Amino acid sequence: MTHQDTNTDQTTGGPAFRIAKFGIGAVVRHRIYPFRGIVFDVDPVFDNTEDWWLAIPEAVRPRKDQPFYHLLAENAETEYVAYVSEQNLLPDTSGEALRHAGIGEMFVRDDTGIYRVRDRAPN
Question: Which residues form the Hemimethylated DNA-binding domain (predicted)?
Answer without folding.
Answer: 19-118
